[in-house]
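User: Predict the full complex structure for these chains.
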Amino acid sequence: MSTADLGLPVDVPSTALFTDRYELTMLQAALRSGAAHRHSVFETFTRRLPAGRRYGVVAGTGRVLDAVENFRFDGPVLDFLSNESVVDDTTLRWLADYRFTGDIWGYPEGEVYFPGSPILRVEGSFAEAVMLETVVLSILNHDSAIAAAASRMAVAAGDRPLMEMGARRTHELAAVAASRAAYVGGFRSSSNLAAGFRYGLPTIGTSAHAFTLVHDSERDAFTAQVESLGSGTTLLVDTYDVATAVRTAVEVAGPELGSVRIDSGDLLLLAHRVRQQLDDLGATRTRIVVTSDLDEYAIASLAAAPVDAYGVGTSLVVGSGHPTCSMVYKLVARGASDAPDAPLVPVAKKALGGKTSVGGRKWAARRLDREGVAEAEVIGSGPVPPDLVDRQLLVPLIRAGEVLAREPLDTARTRHITARAALPLSATQLSQGEPVLPVEML
Amino acid sequence: MSTADLGLPVDVPSTALFTDRYELTMLQAALRSGAAHRHSVFETFTRRLPAGRRYGVVAGTGRVLDAVENFRFDGPVLDFLSNESVVDDTTLRWLADYRFTGDIWGYPEGEVYFPGSPILRVEGSFAEAVMLETVVLSILNHDSAIAAAASRMAVAAGDRPLMEMGARRTHELAAVAASRAAYVGGFRSSSNLAAGFRYGLPTIGTSAHAFTLVHDSERDAFTAQVESLGSGTTLLVDTYDVATAVRTAVEVAGPELGSVRIDSGDLLLLAHRVRQQLDDLGATRTRIVVTSDLDEYAIASLAAAPVDAYGVGTSLVVGSGHPTCSMVYKLVARGASDAPDAPLVPVAKKALGGKTSVGGRKWAARRLDREGVAEAEVIGSGPVPPDLVDRQLLVPLIRAGEVLAREPLDTARTRHITARAALPLSATQLSQGEPVLPVEML
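Assistant: Here is the predicted structure of the two-chain assembly.
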């Protein structure tokens, strides 16, 4: 079966081409100079959180492992690189054998991070490590942005479930990754069938205005839905008049009606009115689901309203105003010479316009106070202070090319809840502020 | 070869699962009620442009055609839907035979649009048309957002080439679509190899700070690059001291050095200094490429600087502040009864909280003044006024399920330049303002 037969809207046969051209031309030049074989340490970090955010959320790590494992230059890819004269024949031969054989350490998925946190460390020859830059950053920058927004929404929603419904607002495959990242950040389910298929996420759905409009009356539509999907279904009640729709809904489904959805208007006011009406009709266990351009602030503003679940679309998949993180992938140390056992020397670009990097292979740890509350993100490249040895954040993800750290998505989701709970209380304020932990560079 | 073998980070075997679950449960209920077979007209439009934007840019149409053609429910997908009890067996059998057999009309790719412009009209049975909602919106909302940002940057850049370099800032496959949309909006090339592979876009690249840092000196790095890639290459000159680097670059490559890239600092100041230095060194034809968080405003501010090309990353792939459009897919007309020849009746949700829709199958035309400048977007559902017949915007894209309107990407790119040029002059002001054309609903 050719890739085109799959019907995917993009038929790139591996992850190897999710790569900026310069990675491969640098490889070619470094193969020639010999620097390609120098042992190199790259670190992924951000210099700043999005304005006002208190913490970042690592997401996409599991997808990074998949991408590294599938970073292969096969026939069609090599033919393309050759036909386009991207690199020379020596380099093509090198690429044909490419497998990442180095080590990757990182913050585990769901962990929180701060400016400078080395959330992923890739170590190997310059040649094998530099090439992973683009795809590693694509995944972490996207997925972490979504997870950070999801986490804020989860804080605002408290115990009420959040449903991800943003597929239609972002690229069709970004949407699948967004569902996954939202789950890590605290969402409960997704409308996106591909996310269910690919990641086993629970999928949910209600119905659209079109379903009501295609029938001759709202009653016909509700009857069709209840007959087909059962009285536990969710009926959409704002196509015409909400009060009429709620009355019709309970008449059609009975008081065991599962839920009603409100998708427009003043949600606070409508939720109260609809709750009262449902209770008056005896549908006291019918739940109220609200949707309609919700973000963490709108969710918080509904905390006192009788709402049972939130459906969130646009603001989630665009990271609630911050659709990308500013993570970079920087060479921080390399062999002092081309000899394979050469000692590592730290390297860094000179600061110009705020683009500072700190050289050296780093460890990171989170220091807790006596009550067990995090008080600082401590990052260093020397020996780890004894009191921080057990609080280190980086874990081995890939060793000598072997993936070590696959885990169920629920593990990452639970880890995020735990990590966030250990932050100072102000972490979960929605208002703009500084990162909730200071970063100490040792 | 299984989809997993492809190494794609997502292995959804067709476009059919890029779909919200409710599309399929609505289908099930409509199959039972009979409404599934009613002839239906869905229109895609936006109620508003992003705040301050003067026009929108249609992009992704070619990808929509691919997605519709590959919207198929094959074995693994049907098994998933069955195992998860998404829909019943009757519905699964219907899905197994699914092929879109209706008609799609739309604004051609690259055309500009305004609030209410019916940029895509999908017509067929309710069942076959409703299911395309999610994937159609994903593609158009994403790609049009990128193209709109690209178009503004292209206006700001004038005749200077724009290079797309945003892969690392967005989802790895969204990045490929973003490269494509940027090209439609006026970019010249992309760093993204997958975009070259998939869409034949010209790919370009320079080198990274890591390449300089992995060598023992900047001179070693420049020598390696020039020996491997030729003196026409682009040398990155801001790793340590820019003036030193420029001198070294010309010493190593000679005055025929292709380009230097500046990626940090005060680009306006540095461009002037570097130009002067290059000229003094006899490298009068060496070009200056600037990168570093450029957006349309930064590009405009460099108009008077001696810059030869711009590389744009983050701000492009996040739509320069507007990463999605607010396009919706609404049922606007349907058969008056279940009879196949029933006349169409317009339908619309009642306005609540600004979510207005206008019922009826619509045409759209752009009225020009005597000088040939566009003066209004005219939209109606009745007969087309004679003077607007030749100015209609919707073209047939799919007829009876057959794709009619494949075209090279350059056609869309050229169309956009032509369409934008016919707008009033204020269209290309970067400052915030109202949509440049009024919309008249007839």
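Chain A is about 35% helix and 15% strand.
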